[in-house]
Amino acid sequence: MNELLTSAQMRAIEQAAFDSGQATGLELMERAGQGVIEAMFEALPDLAKAKAKALILCGPGNNGGDGFVIARLLHEMGWQVSCFLYGDPGRLQPDAKANHDRWGEIGAVVPFADWHVRERWGGAVPVEQPPSLIVDSLFGTGLTRPLARDLDEALRNLASCLPEGKAWRVAVDAPSGLCMDSGRPLDPENDGELPSRQDLTVSFHRLKRGHMLGDGPEWCGRVAVADIGLNQPALRAARPALREQLSDMVQLAEPDKRQLRKGGEDYPGAHKYDYGHAVVLSGGPGRTGAARLAARAALRVGAGLVTLAAPAPAMSECASQLTAVMLTRCNGAPDLGTLLEDERLNALCLGPGLGVSAATRDLVLTALGSRRRCVLDADALTAFAERPQALFAHLHSGVVLTPHAGEFARLFPDIWARFIACPEQGPAISKIEAAQEAAARAGCILLFKGQDTVIVEPGGRVVVHAACYERAAPWLATAGAGDVLAGMIAGLMARGFWPVGAAETAAWLHAEAAISFGPGLIAEDLAEELPAVLRASGV
Ligand SMILES: NC(=O)C1=CN([C@@H]2O[C@H](COP(=O)(O)OP(=O)(O)OC[C@H]3O[C@@H](n4cnc5c(N)ncnc54)[C@H](O)[C@@H]3O)[C@@H](O)[C@H]2O)[C@@H](O)CC1
Ligand SMILES: [K+]
C-alpha cells in the first residue's frame, strides 16, 4: 500500500479489473462513493455532528459519477443534498449516467447555468441555507487541462461565499484543478492558486503521485485511501501488459529496519570495522560546523568509525569539539589520496562547509577516483555549477548527490527550467521525472531534497519521502539539517547499505527524528534523537 500511482497506471488497473471480470465500472463507482462516505466520517468526526446539508459538485466524467453515488448515500443517511452538475447530462459516460439517473429519481440536478453561486450564498442573508459539506466531484485523475474560466470563477465565488471553516470540503480522488501525476495545479492564470483547499481528499485503491508531490498536500488537506476491492497482485499476475505498466512503480520511503539492526545473525560477535569507517571532509577554520554535524550523524546512524578530515589550520577548532569522532589532517586532494590508501575507509561525505573552490573540485575528483561510496552535497555540488559535465564525467553508481532546489537548478538548469514552468496541460512534469532525467544524465543516485524528497537510481528504484500529513516536519527547515542528512547517508553506506537504500533509510530517519523531537529542533538535535527513533522503530 506504499505505492504512488500515476493516473495512467490507475486506469490500467481499472481496465484490467473490467477485462478480467474482477469488477464492473458500476461496482467500482458504488464502492468509490461508499468509500468516500466512510473515509470522511472517520477522518472528520465533527462532520457527523454537523449533519445538515451537503452540496455535491459533479463533473462530466467518472469523478462526477462518484459524486452522484455520494449524493444518494448521504440522502439515505438523512442529509439534505443538492447536486450541481458541470457538464451535459446527455454526454455522461454510461456508469456516471446511470448514477445521475438514479439520483434524478431522488432529487434535482442543478445545471451549471443555474449555479448562481453569489445569488444563492453571497448576500447578507443567503437565499439558500448554506451547506455544511461541499464535495468536490468535478475532476479526478482525468483532468488534463486547466478548469474552464467560467467554472473556475464559480468555484472562487463559492470559496468567497463559504470560506474555509464555514463548510467542510471533501475532494473525491483529487482537488479539481490539481494534476494528479505531479501535484502541480493546472492553473497558469492564477499562478497555481486553486479555488479552495480541501479538508480531506479521498483517493481510491492507492495514493496517486499528486497526493504527495509538489503542492498536492497543501491542496488535499489530508488524505485517506478507500479500498474499492481491486486485487492488484492478482491482476498483475494474470496480465503481462499490466505488469509492464506497473513496472516503474514509485514507492514511499521506508527504513530498512533489518539492515539497521546491529548484531543478530548477520553479525555474530561484530567488531566496529564490520560497520565500516566513514570519512567526512571539513572546511577551513570557522567553517567546520557543517562537517562536524555530518560526522556526528554518520556515527549516530551506526557507522563503526567516523573520521573528520580537516585542513591543518582547522584542526584545533575541530579537536576542541570532537570526542567519539576521530580527526585527521587533510590539506587537500593529495592528502585525501594518501588517506584513502587505507582501504578500511569505505564511505565518504564531501560538501558541507567545504567552500566553492577549485580545491573542493580537486577533493571531489580524488574522492570519485577512489571509487569509494560517496555522498556529494552542498559546496561539492555548487563548485561544479559552471561546468557540471566535469562532475558528471566522473560519477559512478556508488555516488549519491543530494541537491536541494537551488543546487539542482545549478547542475541541471535546463531540466529545472522545464520543471518550474507553470504547466498548462497534464500530465505535468513532476519532481520524479525531473529527478529521473537528472540522475540519468549524472549517472549516479540522486536525492532531490524538499518537502517531497525524491530518490532515484538511474534506470532503477524511485522512492518518495514526503514530509507531509502525519509525517509533516516543518522544523526540518533549519540550518544544518541537510548536512546531517548527508552524514547519515555516508554513515549508512559505511555500514554496507547500497547507496539508494542508504538514501531512502536516511531520508526516513531524518524526518522521523524531526517529528520525534518536535518544535524547537535545531540541526544538532537530529543526530541526538536517532537513538530514540531507532528504539521506537524496533531496531
Ligand atoms: N480508476 C478507477 O479505478 C476508478 C475511477 N473512478 C473515478 O473516475 C475518475 C476518473 O474519471 P475520468 O477518467 O472520467 O476523468 P474525470 O472525471 O477526472 O474527468 C472527466 C473528463 O473531463 C475531460 N477533462 C479533462 N480536463 C478537463 C477540463 N479542465 N475541463 C473540462 N473537461 C476536462 C477529460 O476528457 C476527462 O476524461 C477518478 O478520479 C475517480 O473519481 C471511480 O468511479 C472508481 C474507480
Ligand atoms: K474531484
Automatic annotation (TrEMBL):
Binding site for AMP: K449, G450, Q451, D452, T453, G482
Cofactor notes: Binds 1 potassium ion per subunit.
Keywords: ATP-binding, Isomerase, Kinase, Lyase, Metal-binding, Multifunctional enzyme, NAD, NADP, Nucleotide-binding, Potassium, Transferase
Superkingdom classification of source: Bacteria
PROSITE patterns: YJEF_C_2 (PS01050), YJEF_C_3 (PS51383), YJEF_N (PS51385)
Binding residues for (6S)-NADPHX: 62-66, 140-146, 173, 290, 353, 404, 483
EC number(s) on file: 4.2.1.136, 5.1.99.6
Biological processes annotated in GO: metabolite repair; nicotinamide nucleotide metabolic process
InterPro entries: Carbohydrate_kinase_pred_CS, CARKD, Nnr, Ribokinase-like, YjeF_N_dom, YjeF_N_dom_sf
Cofactor needs: Mg(2+); K(+)
UniProt-listed HAMAP family: NADHX_dehydratase (MF_01965), NADHX_epimerase (MF_01966)
PANTHER family named in the record: ATP-DEPENDENT (S)-NAD(P)H-HYDRATE DEHYDRATASE (PTHR12592:SF0), ATP-DEPENDENT (S)-NAD(P)H-HYDRATE DEHYDRATASE FAMILY MEMBER (PTHR12592)
SUBUNIT field: Homotetramer.
UniProt function note: Catalyzes the epimerization of the S- and R-forms of NAD(P)HX, a damaged form of NAD(P)H that is a result of enzymatic or heat-dependent hydration. This is a prerequisite for the S-specific NAD(P)H-hydrate dehydratase to allow the repair of both epimers of NAD(P)HX. Bifunctional enzyme that catalyzes the epimerization of the S- and R-forms of NAD(P)HX and the dehydration of the S-form of NAD(P)HX at the expense of ADP, which is converted to AMP. This allows the repair of both epimers of NAD(P)HX, a damaged form of NAD(P)H that is a result of enzymatic or heat-dependent hydration.
Family listed: Belongs to the NnrD/CARKD family.
Name listed for the protein in its UniProt record: Bifunctional NAD(P)H-hydrate repair enzyme
Organism: Aliiruegeria lutimaris
